[in-house]
Amino acid sequence: MFTIPVNAHVQLKFPEIHDATALFTLVDADRPGLGRFLPWVEKTKTVEDEARFLHFVREQVSQDQLWAAVILVEGQAAGMIDIHQLDAENRTGEIGYWLGKTYRGRGVVTAALAAVERVAFRELALTRLVLVAANTNTASQAVAQRRGFQQEGILRQALVLPEGVSDAVLYSKLVSD
Fold first, then answer.
1. What is the pLDDT along the chain (177 residues), one digit of tens a residue?
2. How far are the Cα atoms of 21, 27, 30, 92, 99 from residue 44, in angstroms, in the given order?
3. Which of 6, 107, 109, 146 would you call most buried, defined as having the most Cβ atoms within 10 angstroms of its Cβ?
4. Helical packing angle, 47-62 and 20-29, nearest 10°
5. Checking DSSP bridges between strand 67-73 and strand 164-174, what pairing results, if any?
6. This model's pTM is above 0.70
7. Spatial separation of the C-alpha atoms in residues 98 and 121, rounded to whole Å
8. What SS3 class is residue 37?
9. If DSSP states are collapsed to H, E and C, what string results for 40-77?
């Protein structure tokens, strides 16, 4: 459906069912790390679970409820990034992403997010993006800050995580920023 070059090493591509094995392998290799902030990790127990999720993603994309991409690094699946909570009437969406542990700390998500912002503001005609990160997820907060998202506030006890209920930091970026 699409491939978006991000830089010399990173691309975004439309999620295909055959990506399930590679994505599941990444999740399975870092359950403790990913699972700290992403409750769906504990429910993703098999490649079939991941394939079911990708079917759901494709269905949501076809209904204009979601925009999603697999993040590729040197042609290998490294994670996913999406715009969910798409609201065409209010022209808003919420960013979500995750990355396998071997790909972190290399600017991959920051670069991917820059490309997704272009899609959101130019192709989807959104005017506002939000990004919500657990108050203890400093890496995700740093990505938002590097991309010029503005902190709007703290959402008290907004996230139910495996470690318990957590406050979240709300960031936003406008097309005019």
1. 799 999 999 999 999 999 999 999 999 999 999 999 999 999 999 999 999 999 999 999 999 999 999 999 999 999 999 999 999 999 999 999 999 999 999 999 999 999 999 999 999 999 999 999 999 999 999 999 999 999 999 999 999 998 899 999 999 999 999
2. 12, 8, 12, 28, 15
3. 109
4. 120
5. unpaired
6. yes
7. 21
8. coil
9. HHHHCCCHHHHHHHHHHHHHHHHCCCCEEEEEEECCEE
Structure tokens at 133: 């990160």
Residue where the block lists tokens 């359950």 = 31
CATH superfamily assigned to domain 3-130: Gcn5-related N-acetyltransferase (GNAT) (3.40.630.30)
Residue 37 phi, psi (nearest 5): -120, -10
